[in-house]
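>> received
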Amino acid sequence: MDIQGIQKMTLLDFPGRVACTIFLSGCDLRCPFCHNSELIDAGKAESVMTEEEFLSFLKKRQGLLDGVAITGGEPLLRRELPELIKKIRDLGYPVKLDTNGNHPRQLEKVLSEKLADYVAMDIKNSRDKYALTCGLQQMDLSRVNESLRMLMDSGCDYELRTTVVRELHDRESFADIAEWIKGAKRYYLQSFTDRDTVLYSGFSAPDPGDLRAWAELVRPSVELCEVRGVD
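>> returned
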C-alpha cells in the first residue's frame, strides 16, 4: 500500500506519545470544511512513499518514535490496512487510528483483532445536520451509530471529536450530541482552522466563548470533555 502523506514527528496526533502520522487517500464523505481535501479522491492523490519505504523509515526511528497515527482520507476504506497495522506493530509501535465511523465492519475487524491501541472517531454534528455537515444529500446514520456503540463497548482506548465550524454548529448541535454519546470516555470540540487545502471557502472558526459554553453543555454526559485549538 502506498502512503500519500507523512508527518515524521508529532506530539499532538497520538496522545501521550511521540509519533509519526501517515495519511492515506480516499474518503466516502465530502465534508465541505475538510482540511485534507487533496486526499479525498484516491485516484488523484500522489503517493510520497511505498509501504516498504515507510516500514524502513520506522525501523530507523526505533527508539526515537513510540507510536504511529494513521489518518486520511478514511483509512478503513483500505482493505490492506489490517496487514499494514500488523507490520507496524511487529516493529514495536503502538497504533492510533482515525476514522469517520462510517465503516463498522472494518472497524470491528480492527477492534476484534486488537490492532489499534487508540481510536479517534469523528462525530460530525447533531443527527439532523449530519448529512449536510458531511457534504451529502442524505446519509444512513445506522453505520455511524453502530461504530459508536462498538467503540464505546470495545475496551480499546478512544476519543470522540467534533471539528466545530461557525457556519455549521450551534447550541442545538451539542445538545443532541450530548444525548447521543452519553457515557463516552473522551469527547473533544476542536476549533476549525482555515487552510488553503479546505475543500470549500467561506467557513470560519467559532467564537471561543461559544466553544467553551458548548463543552459545558456536553460535559455532564461524558467522562471527559475538553476544547482543542483555543488558547
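>> The chain has one domain: 5-228.
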